[in-house]
Design brief:
The protein is an all-alpha fold and 386 residues long. The protein has helices at residues 2-12, 14-29, 42-61, 63-72, 78-96, 98-115, 122-136, 145-154, 158-182, 203-220, 226-244, 255-272, 275-285, 289-300, 302-310, 316-325, 335-350, 357-385. It is globular, with a radius of gyration of 21 Å.
Amino acid sequence: MLVRKIVNFAKKETVLFAAVLLAFGSMVCVPPDMQYLSYIDYRVLALLFCLMTVMEGFKSTGFFAAVAGKLLEKVKTFRQLYLVLVFLCFFTSMWITNDVALLTFVPFTVLVLRMTGLEQEMIPVIVLQTIAANLGSMTTPVGNPQNLYLYSISGMGIGAFLQIMGPLTLISAGLIFLICLIHKDFPIRQGMLGKEIVGVRKAGENQVLAVLFFISLLSVFRILSWQLLLLIVLVSCIGIKAFCKEKYLPLEADFGLLLTFVAFFIFIGNMGRICAVREVLSQVLNGRELLISFLCSQMISNVPAAILLSGFTQEYRGLLQGVNIGGLGTLIASLASLISYKFFAAESEQTPAAGTRGRYMLTFTIWNVGMALVLLAAAFLLNGLT
């Protein structure tokens, strides 16, 4: 029974399970002591926790679906619908993270395409939404966990961050727009995108959440201490629960992701105390941060890759670009991509017209690899010019 539970946990939380194994394995080489406490980046954990809590609140109010519903009222052709659904993921992921964008808009997209009789377009739309969320999220420090982590430990300013990631964002937007543009266009049914898919607005709660998000940004940009932010969020959520009859949002945060960070902090801290390991990894990474972080992301996903490799290099430009471009490629390169796949897989069982899982994987792989190669080439070129 215990073995079965462990196996089920490993399947459900593969990255966390691997991180915990690495952490415990490293403890054999470096027994626990007081120095372990210095491994943990408490600021990153607090910022992640607060941002996830706020996003859970927005999800529960249906705010993002409501915004999307308003935008779709003007849509008349499939190309317009394609652009709106894809760029919703691209732009919102910059602020609400790639996984929240996909959790919000992929089910919304499935419903929209089903209501308009466009189930056969589900694969190209969802695949491009996934790419858009992963690439749009690289624009800001709060777009994804690896950005928040690298922005925090590097000490870089927002200007330097945008200078590094801005050009790649513009190239990504252009490529995504081109893909939407060359897709066949045709009129779609009108009057099918009604209020029933918009979700419920809770104006008061959304206003409080918007203030909390703004305060979180102040902490991300080092204007407000993370300790004060944590206190404000925890207390405010008590008020939301009391006055809005809402669940206590901090309990809805992704604690698996937070524990994954802690486990990797321990593993990296221990490896850094082993001279031979530190020297080898530093030499391997030296001057190859962009390529190695991209390749590493393909095998263990980009968040763990960022945490792991950051302990052995100070060249954050290549590392930041590599793990963000590294969200493209394999299905596990970005764990957010698994969200889209799970939604499609469930829908394909009920709606054969949506296509097969095999077709989804083929389309996903071709588009992701193609986009990744273009962006890698662009990153190498841009780095060579600066």
